[in-house]
What we know:
The chain is mainly β. 0% of the residues lie in helices and 54% in strands. A six-stranded mixed beta sheet has the order 1-2-10-3-7-6, with no helix packed on it. The chain is globular, with a radius of gyration of 14 Å.
Amino acid sequence: MISLPRLLRVDCNDIVCQAEKHPEGRTVIMLVTPANTKMKKLVVSATNVFGHELKCGYYCGTNLSGMNAGTKFSKVDLGNARNIVIQFVKANSRGKLTDFGTLILPESAQGHEVTFFWPNDVGNF
């Protein structure tokens, strides 16, 4: 059982966190945002990568379709990486990139696809 919060408070949003066992036992991190949002970014570091950026927003990310139309995603396959650390970054109202905190994933996240849905802003910060 993975011990990951279902909701994670970042700036003025609750980010939805979900994890599913990967069929090949690989660790994958994915960021999902509305397509009509300012750029949001996860900076992923682990035993095999440092500072890998996942970006979604108006001009970055890949469009999803079907029930997820109107959203974009970006993901990285970390293989069997350990010690995964994720930094949450987004542009503030003046366009300056701002660090909104860091999450250290538990070891139980290894072998899972961990998805973070970061919604549009609901207030000012």
